[in-house]
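Researcher: Structure prediction, please.
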Amino acid sequence: MQTQNYGRILVAELVGTAELMLGGPGVAILAGDRVGVIGIALGFGFSLMIMAYCIGPISGCHINPAVSLGMWLARKVGGRHAIAAVIGQLIGAIAGAAMIFGIARGNGSFARQNFASNGYDRLPLPDRITPDVSGRPFFSLGAAISVEILFTAVLVLVLLFTTSRRFAPGFGGLVAGITLALIHMITIPVDNTSVNPARSLGAALFANGDSDALQQLWVFILFPLVGAVVGVITWLILDEATLEDTMLAEVPGAIAVRDVLDDAADEVNDALDG
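Model: Predicted structure follows.
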């Protein structure tokens, strides 16, 4: 078995996450007024797709702590791999945001304001080159929590399926990129779309101090991680893998709950067959 180079994994995830920041928040901040929601969503999707084919063979191209958590829970990667990946992601997100900030300062009219950060119950500020051209505020805290759990679960579910032996070889990066673009098209008006704690951290650190980006950051760290767990559970329901194949089997009572649900499902099947 080939020994993994955790240093290469860290650097690959660093580079990939920095590129995601340039291609996602970078588009929103530098060109959002020209390309709108669709352009920003495609910026995120293209960034993930490109990096999937470039660094995927090295690190798996998670470029997202929630994805790394999901892959670890599903035992697609080991703990050291996941830790190295997350460290690289956090450094890369900050580095990418710093590069965007340096470029944006070349525009004399640039003001930091929200810096494409995530939020809830927040009015769009003038330089959050907002895809929500109607000028509506972001949605409520409850809506933000809901979309972060739901759409992170969707992202993790899709990425887990792309690692299946039954999935068509060579198409994983394309499907991952399209998925992320679709998620952004749906949720940008809600909370500016996170589904990625590293992306949220990088943007919040460079937002204006008068912004509430850092105060609201906890939502966009915690609930994408919850969504990752939901995504793994959903994958288990749909895939041939068993609970014992994942880290979730270590959760007290998880196997007992699974057995109860299996018995209930068997009873439903018997009733329908009868």
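Model: The CA atoms of residues 255 and 261 lie 10 Å apart.
Researcher: Thanks, that helps.
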